[in-house]
């Protein structure tokens, strides 16, 4: 059996992104979402998500340690003088460092705060992943696993995309290097899940699709889905009207809208049907 979870990241980033994600849900293509607990529109997005219960979408937490303001007060290492997270590059450098007791404590505090914030809004968290894959970095993975088990979150994204595409396969050099980087981190992190109640899907795809998803690519992808449970990471959205200065202001771009149009294109669903692929949310319990 070949099953595909189409997971839309960054729900709660802004209204335009949320609009695009909900369009893809209503079209029956997006079967799972990851919510930014500190996103500016997360509360409104969760209310809308609850109104779509009949669509059977699995909600997850999109752990964020790099953008915007944390939900915990008094963080010293993860934030700058303005009280906000340090941004992508500085956070990744910090999380690549060897384990540090103070840093581990801050990560644990913020991860638990984000999980609890979503639960307090009535969200039953089914799966966990990380904004910019922060959860698989060396300083974070073991720290993240503890609250995942505590809150009975059975699924965790391991963004290890194997085999990687040939570097010449229409994949820009910087994207290829980034994909290899995250796959290496994820492969190391996967070992930490052994012996826990948390598991990954059998296969993950999306690192090398970033910013270049179109209808032909998705239709070609449908024919490559292997046996088992595969997660496809996507980032659909609509272009934001006007200017925004928030932490996620660059999220609602033309590329997001192109990705949305590709996902809802009838050719993608036809290709999945042709190859016998079942669309599914994350299972509510371990398989």
- The count of DSSP E runs of length 2 or more, i.e. the number of strands, is 8
What is the C-alpha radius of gyration, as a whole number of Å? 18 Å
Total helical elements:
9
Shape: globular
Total number of domains: 1
Mean pLDDT: 93
Please report the distance between the alpha carbons of the first and last residues.
13 Å
Task: Name the structural class.
Answer: alpha/beta
Q: Uncertain segments of ≥5 residues (pLDDT<50)? A: none
Q: CATH top level?
A: Alpha Beta
What is the helix/strand order? EHEHEHHEHEHEHEHHE
Q: Assign the CATH topology.
A: TIM Barrel
> What fraction strand?
5-15%
| Largest sheet: number of strands, sense, barrel closure | 8 strands, parallel
What does this structure look like?
- The protein is an alpha/beta fold and 287 residues long.
- The protein has one domain: TIM Barrel, CATH 3.20.20.370.
- 37% of the residues lie in helices and 14% in strands.
- The protein is built from nine helices and eight strands.
- Strands 1, 2, 3, 4, 5, 6, 7 and 8 form an eight-stranded parallel sheet that branches.
- α5 (141-150) links the parallel β4 (127-130) and β5.
- α1 (15-26) runs parallel beside α8.
- The longest helix has 20 residues, at 101-120.
- It is globular.
- The two termini are 13 Å apart.
- The model has no long low-confidence stretch (mean pLDDT 93).
């Amino acid at each position: 059996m070949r099953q595909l979870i189409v997971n839309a990241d960054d729900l709660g980033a802004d209204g335009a992104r949320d609009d695009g994600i909900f369009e893809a849900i209503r079209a029956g293509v997006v079967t799972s979402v990851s919510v930014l607990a500190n996103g500016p529109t997360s509360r409104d997005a969760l209310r809308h998500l609850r109104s779509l219960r009949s669509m059977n979408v699995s909600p997850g937490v999109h752990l964020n340690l790099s953008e915007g303001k944390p939900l915990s007060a008094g963080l010293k290492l993860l934030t700058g003088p303005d009280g906000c997270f340090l941004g992508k590059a500085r956070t990744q450098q910090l999380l690549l460092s060897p384990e540090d007791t103070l840093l581990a404590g801050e990560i644990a505090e913020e991860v638990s705060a984000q999980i609890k914030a979503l639960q307090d809004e009535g969200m039953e968290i089914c799966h966990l992943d990380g904004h910019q894959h922060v959860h698989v970095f060396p300083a974070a993975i073991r720290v993240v696993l503890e609250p995942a088990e505590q809150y009975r979150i059975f699924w965790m994204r391991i963004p290890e995309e194997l085999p990687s595409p040939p570097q010449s396969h229409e994949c820009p050099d910087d994207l290829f290097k980034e994909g290899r980087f995250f796959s290496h981190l994820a492969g190391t992190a996967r070992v930490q899940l052994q012996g826990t109640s948390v598991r990954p899907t059998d296969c993950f795809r999306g690192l090398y699709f970033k910013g270049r998803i179109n209808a032909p690519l998705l239709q070609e992808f449908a024919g490559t889905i292997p046996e088992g449970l595969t997660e496809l990471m996507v980032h659909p959205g609509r272009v934001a009207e006007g200017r925004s200065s928030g932490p996620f202001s660059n999220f609602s771009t033309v590329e997001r809208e192109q990705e949305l149009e590709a996902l809802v294109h009838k050719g993608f669903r036809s290709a999945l049907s042709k190859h016998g692929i079942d669309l599914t949310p994350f299972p509510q319990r371990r398989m």
